[in-house]
Amino acid sequence: MQSELSQIQAFFNTEYPLNQNGLNELFGLFKVEKVAKGETLLVANTTENYLRFLNSGVVREYYATPDKETNINFYAEPQFITDLSSFINDTATNKNQECITEVELLAVEKNAFRDLLDKYECGKSFIEISFQRLLKQKELFEYNRITKTPDELYKELIIYRPNWLDNIPQYHIASYLNVTPETLSRIRKRIS
C-alpha cells in the first residue's frame, strides 16, 4: 500500500502542506481501487460519495444530453478527480466520468473524510484551497471556450497538455474542443 500512496503523499507535500498527523490519518483511510477501461466512475444526477485521487490512468469528464456528450476535462496525472461541489454540498452532480484507460484510484468514503475534517482544523484549508482552484480553473475554461478559436485551443493543448494529445483518443479531443473529428484533423494539419 505504501507505493500506492507515494503519488498522493507527493501531491500533499507540494500542494497542501498540512498537519502531518492529520495527513497520516487521511492516508490510512484511502483504499486502492483498480478500475477497467470503459468503466464509469461518476454518473450525472447522483451524489459524489467518495473523495477520489487518480494515481494512474486517464479519466474523461463530460456532460451528456440524450443527443450528445461533451468532454469538459481530462485527468491524466495524479490529482483529485472528485466533483467537490457535489461531495461537499451533498447535491447531485451534472458531470459524468469514464475511464479512458485502466485506472488506479485512491478513494475514501465521504463520512470518514468528514469525521477527519472535524478532528483536524487543517482540513478546512484543504477544502477552501480546492474550491478556489476549482473556481479559477472553471473560469479560465469558460473564458477560453468563449474567446478562443478551436485552433487556438488546440495550440494551447500542444503547449500545456501534450500528454492529453498522446494518451486521449482524437474524437474525445474533438469533443473537448467542440468540433467534429474531421475539423480536428484539419486543425492538426494546419498547425503541424
Automatic annotation (TrEMBL):
<feature type="domain" description="Cyclic nucleotide-binding">
    <location>
        <begin position="18"/>
        <end position="117"/>
    </location>
</feature>
<dbReference type="InterPro" id="IPR018490">
    <property type="entry name" value="cNMP-bd_dom_sf"/>
</dbReference>
<dbReference type="InterPro" id="IPR014710">
    <property type="entry name" value="RmlC-like_jellyroll"/>
</dbReference>
<dbReference type="InterPro" id="IPR000595">
    <property type="entry name" value="cNMP-bd_dom"/>
</dbReference>
<dbReference type="Pfam" id="PF00027">
    <property type="entry name" value="cNMP_binding"/>
</dbReference>
<protein>
    <submittedName>
        <fullName>Crp/Fnr family transcriptional regulator</fullName>
    </submittedName>
</protein>
